[in-house]
């Protein structure tokens, strides 16, 4: 039989207090649930259960947590409260709202359910879901089956399930995580959001899209106030023209700057360059990079269908792109003058005719010219014709410079390059090698045209050593020497100013004679890697000596020095990095966040930032079937 008793609120509170005081000795104080406010209550007793039906607004207190509702069913024996209608759970500055709550006091667990469950923290972050459990003792909330959190500025984070630790003010989002920032949208396996400091920690694989690019990594953090990102473990950055890899990328979105750490690679497809280091300071558009800790650069090209790459390294390297409007006018004119000088043919100007590769001639044929004929005007290129691109590349390398290409290697103390004049300049004791030839001088200029090696100018104290056999070396010494290349091979060289020459001549494959000449200038044509014809100009003196009677000291010009021990033998002597292939097409296939739970619980779909890089990559996929891009973009080199 059920007895029904209606009591006034005051009498009910007094009765409850009396009952609790009588059982306090046998019950843990932490079990006590106090009804501190209600309009009325009805008491039921059945099967040894004490049940109270409380109408209100009603308020219960447990673990310093206030539970407010329209009505409640309170099971005193089981120590359970079922709160129904306009339910709020308030603990400190954390507020939970829902249609109903099943509160298990002995477990300090509030099972919050309803058509809309909302958790509001002290920073006005609103987490919405349908299913949430809240431990009032530990102040930890757990949601599942989807949830979305929106901050006061409208930015959202959503996931399939997650946690909120009120005491440390941390949200943790797990599985199918999607998020918006001021400049990005991202997806992650899991992340933690520290509301007190407005910081996000990425706890798994993370993809992020922004207006001009893409970022990814396996872990890291994001400072929401400063718009700074720290991506770690296989970090990757993509923008319109560059791809960047590193073990860690610290990216400052407010200034488009980044610091890159460990195993850094920057692929600049627009400039056909790959940049490596273990620490770099980087900025995009226009690109600027300072490279430290074992830096190197690969500059790849295709000559007559053959892929090749120039690798060079130094202790420090600085690389930047500069717009035409940003180039100092005096420097620009100086670069153009140097460009025009590189197009000149001094021998043709001095001795009356353009020099071109002649038909095959007998090896060693010589022509002596004692006087000049007529001068040929220099064909100059107009300034505007050399300034077709709006962006120019600058490279400065300092200390311990070395480089390797299949047909050219070298060393120097420092190196500089810009794409205005396309000249690589080597300073302080430079040396370059081409096949069996060694070139040295006080400074060297290497001219690149249409990504091809065209010319090398040895400036002041020039010396060329060419291996004839294991003990005999042809030698040319002059004030300046210019070496010309066709299809990557040495095709001609000219010498100017006090030229001294030693050539060794073979008969029946046995070297028998050394020919020594001096003149004001000379030029030599190379065919099949051998000197086929030589011209000597003005004040020519010639002597020939049998090898058998020749003292060893006579076989060397003054200043002769072989530097073969310094020569890089492979690209690994310059750059031992494993080259990563482009991921641009792969990234374009990744799906963007769709914010399913945000649409359900907030009724909106977050607006995505303009995603130019992704759209361009998607268009590329439409135009080009997916394939191994590394075989197309990167040269045929050791990986």
Please provide a written account of the structure.
The protein is built from seven helices and 40 strands. It has 639 residues and is mainly beta. The longest helix has 15 residues, at 9-23. The chain starts with a strand and ends in a 6-residue tail after the last helix.
Which key features would you list for this structure?
7 helices, lipopolysaccharide transport protein A fold, disordered C terminus, 639 residues, mainly beta, rod-shaped
Count of individual beta strands = 40
Q: Strand pairing plus helix content: what structural class?
A: mainly beta
**C-alpha geometry:** rod-shaped
β content, as a range? over 45%
- Count helical runs: 7
Radius of gyration: 40 Å
CATH architecture of the domain at 345-402 and 415-573: Sandwich
Whole-number mean pLDDT: 82
Which helices and strands occur, and which strands form pairs?
Layout: E1 5-7, H1 9-23, E2 34-37, E3 40-46, E4 49-62, E5 65-75, E6 80-91, E7 94-104, E8 109-120, E9 126-135, E10 140-143, E11 147-150, E12 156-159, E13 161-165, E14 170-180, E15 184-194, E16 199-202, E17 206-210, E18 213-217, E19 219-223, E20 228-239, E21 242-252, E22 257-268, E23 273-283, E24 288-292, E25 296-303, E26 306-313, E27 316-323, H2 329-342, H3 346-351, E28 365-369, E29 391-405, E30 408-418, E31 423-427, E32 431-434, E33 437-440, E34 443-449, E35 452-467, E36 473-486, E37 489-507, E38 510-527, E39 530-537, E40 541-546, H4 584-588, H5 596-602, H6 612-623, H7 629-633
Parallel strand pairs: 28-39
Antiparallel strand pairs: 1-3, 2-4, 3-4, 4-5, 5-6, 6-7, 7-8, 8-9, 9-10, 9-11, 10-13, 11-12, 12-14, 13-14, 14-15, 15-16, 15-17, 16-19, 17-18, 18-20, 19-20, 20-21, 21-22, 22-23, 23-24, 23-25, 24-27, 25-26, 26-29, 27-29, 29-30, 30-31, 30-32, 31-34, 32-33, 33-35, 34-35, 35-36, 36-37, 37-38, ...
């Amino acid at each position: 039989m059920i007895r029904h008793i209606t009591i006034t609120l005051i009498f009910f509170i007094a009765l409850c207090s009396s009952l609790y005081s009588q059982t306090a000795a046998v019950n843990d104080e932490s079990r006590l649930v106090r009804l501190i406010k209600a309009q009325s209550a009805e008491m039921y007793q059945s099967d040894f259960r004490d049940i109270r039906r409380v109408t209100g607004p009603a308020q219960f207190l447990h673990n310093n947590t206030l539970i407010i509702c329209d009505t409640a069913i309170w099971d005193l024996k089981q120590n359970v409260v079922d709160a129904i209608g306009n339910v709020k759970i308030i603990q400190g500055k954390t507020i939970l709202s829902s249609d109903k709550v099943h509160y298990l006091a002995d477990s300090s667990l509030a099972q919050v359910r309803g058509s809309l469950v909302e958790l509001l923290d002290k920073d006005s972050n609103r987490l919405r879901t349908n299913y949430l459990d809240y431990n009032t003792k530990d102040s930890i909330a757990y949601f599942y089956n989807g949830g979305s959190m929106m901050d006061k500025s409208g930015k959202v984070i959503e996931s399939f399930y997650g946690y909120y630790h009120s005491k440390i003010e941390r949200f943790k989002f797990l599985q199918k995580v999607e998020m918006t920032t001021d400049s990005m949208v991202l997806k992650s396996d899991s992340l933690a959001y520290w509301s007190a400091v407005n910081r996000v920690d990425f706890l798994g694989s993370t993809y992020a899209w922004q207006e001009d690019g893409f970022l990814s990594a396996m872990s890291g953090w994001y400072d929401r106030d400063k718009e700074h990102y720290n991506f770690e473990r296989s970090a990757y950055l993509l923008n319109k023209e560059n791809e960047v890899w590193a073990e860690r990328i610290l990216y400052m979105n407010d200034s488009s700057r980044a610091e890159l750490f460990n195993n850094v690679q920057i692929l600049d497809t627009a400039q056909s360059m790959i940049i490596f280091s273990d620490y770099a300071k980087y900025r995009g558009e226009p690109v600027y990079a300072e490279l430290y800790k074992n830096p190197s650069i690969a500059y790849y090209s295709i000559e007559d269908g053959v892929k090749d790459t120039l690798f060079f390294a130094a202790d420090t390297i600085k690389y930047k792109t500069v717009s035409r409007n940003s180039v100092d006018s005096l420097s620009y004119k100086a670069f153009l003058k140097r460009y025009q000088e590189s197009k000149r043919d001094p021998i043709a100007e001095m001795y009356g005719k353009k020099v071109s590769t002649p038909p095959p001639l007998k090896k060693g044929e010589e022509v002596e010219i004692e006087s000049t004929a007529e001068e040929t005007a220099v064909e100059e290129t107009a300034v505007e014709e050399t300034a077709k691109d709006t962006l120019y590349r600058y490279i400065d390398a300092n200390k311990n410079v070395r480089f390797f290409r299949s047909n050219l290697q070298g060393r120097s103390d420092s190196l500089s390059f810009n794409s205005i004049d396309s000249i690589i300049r080597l300073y302080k004791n430079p040396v370059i090698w081409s096949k069996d030839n060694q070139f040295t001088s006080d400074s060297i200029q290497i001219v690149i045209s249409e990504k091809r090696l065209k010319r090398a100018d040895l400036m002041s104290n020039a010396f060329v050593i060419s291996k004839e056999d294991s003990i005999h070396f042809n030698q040319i010494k002059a004030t300046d020497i210019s070496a010309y290349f066709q299809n990557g091979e040495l095709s001609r060289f000219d010498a100017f100013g006090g030229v001294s020459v030693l050539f060794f001549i073979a008969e029946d494959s046995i070297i028998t004679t050394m020919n020594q000449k001096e003149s004001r200038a000379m030029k030599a044509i190379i065919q099949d890697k051998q000197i086929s014809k030589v011209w000597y100009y003005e004040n020519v003196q010639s002597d020939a000596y049998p090898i058998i009677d020749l003292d060893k000291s006579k076989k060397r010009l003054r200043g002769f020095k072989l530097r073969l021990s310094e020569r890089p033998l492979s690209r690994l002597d310059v750059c031992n990095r494993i080259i990563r292939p482009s991921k641009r097409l792969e990234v374009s296939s990744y799906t963007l966040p769709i914010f399913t739970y945000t649409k359900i619980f907030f009724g909106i779909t977050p607006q995505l930032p303009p995603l130019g890089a992704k759209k361009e990559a998607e268009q590329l996929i439409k135009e080009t079937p997916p394939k191994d891009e590394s075989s197309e973009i990167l040269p045929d080199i050791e990986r």
